[in-house]
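Appendix C reproduces, verbatim, an entry submitted by the partner laboratory led by Prof. M.T., so that reviewers can inspect both the input and the predicted structure.
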Amino acid sequence: ITYAKYDGLSISADRDAVRINWGDGTSDSICRTNGALEPSGCHAGEIIATSPITIKKNEYIGRHTYSGFPPLGFYLISFYDNNRIDGIANIDNGNSVNVAFYVEDTLKYPTDLANIGTNSGPILLHPPIDYANLNDTFYHNPLAIDPDGDSLDFQLIPCRQAQGSVVPVYSYPDQYCRASNHPDNTLTIDRHTGQIVWATPCYVGIFNIAILISEFRGGICIGTMVRDMQIIVLNENNDPPKIAAVNDTCIRAGDKLQISVV
């Protein structure tokens, strides 16, 4: 699943089809599968926002069968695109449209199925695009769940343009702000919950960060994935609602819990 800006200079980042490298020396061009069918045979994607910037959600579904056990114990599945959207403040001084986009996922083969078992990757329920407000503390959580109940570890990493290669002139959003006369700016992530806190966005514009998510089972790392996400900072005269504390309540699985939130 990708999110693209579909107009202006950034139209280069909106793809009918993408190429997935499976990590075994093969790759496939995979058509977009959501939205209206186009003459190319691929689909058009789904427009989910028209302002303050245009956003299109794109889904690509492919199937691949591996020939056998990988030599290193895992396959590195990766996605590379020549273009990001234009105007990302903390990538190449805003000249980001010609900077490549790259994410990867490890598919590990356990050597001891009896003890380790099979594995499914984490599912991230929150889209990799979110809105912040100038001078208001920004909170974001990818809402990661693991189908197998594995423990997840979250780390901030620089955005990448290829395997092992960081995008040019990259700075974390707090570093960007500290360099712009905001010495106390901070950006943190909770390693156990994935909760991101940026105190506070100092500049109206677009920022990108990347998150490395690692799965652990029995103290062993059995998989990793990378999310590259976008934060759109606006200047809105708006304060978010304040939610009163909700009591921690234990119920039986499958029962309904009804509470009032103020």
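The CA atoms of residues 204 and 233 lie 5 Å apart. Additional entries are available on request from the coordinating office.
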